[in-house]
Amino acid sequence: MRHRIWLALAGALGFWIPLVLLEVTSKNGNFNLILANTLPLITVACVYWLMQKRHPGDQRALSVAMLIGIYVLGPVMMWLTWSAHGGGFATARGPHAILWLLLFTVVPPFTLYLATWNGTLVAVLAATVALAALAMPRGLRS
């Protein structure tokens, strides 16, 4: 179980850290949407490839764990980037704000909803399709 949590964390960080860096370093939240949608796909593909090399027989578990990590940590990472521009955690007041964040992290469609706000819905959907396809047994992929 601990191994799968690490895989989920690796997938989430591989996907979201480039976006966090891109958004935090942008001026007033203005950044290139094409870069914002391709950069996380490239980095998550690299993380997947590296993890696949380390754990060659664990392809299905790796794909599912990375996908879970992307969806669970997505709201937290997006709130983190919004904090740099005066939103997210910077405006969270009281326990109800934390309750909303917890709700966002346990209900996967909220990651898709929040991804529309920062323009990365295409990247989230592409990663979802790719990782779901990699999680399928080989006979079902064709």
Main attributes of the structure:
single chain, 142 residues, mainly alpha
By helix and strand content, what is the structural category?
mainly alpha
Question: Could you state the order of secondary-structure elements as H and E?
Answer: HHHHHHH
The overall number of domains is 1
Mean residue pLDDT: 84
Unreliable parts: none
Computed over alpha carbons, the radius of gyration is: 15 Å
Describe the structure.
This protein has about 140 residues and is mainly alpha-helical. It has one domain (about 1-140). It is built from seven helices and no strands. Helix 3 runs antiparallel to helix 4 (about 95-105) and helix 3 (about 60-85) packs antiparallel against helix 6. The longest helix is centred in the middle third of the chain and has 25 residues, at about 60-85. The two termini are about 30 Å apart. The mean pLDDT is about 85.
How are the SSEs ordered, and which strands pair?
Blueprint (H helix, E strand, L loop, with lengths): L1 H24 L7 H22 L4 H25 L11 H12 L2 H10 L2 H15 L2 H4 L1
Quick take:
It contains seven helices and no strands. The chain is mainly alpha-helical and 142 residues long. The chain has one domain.
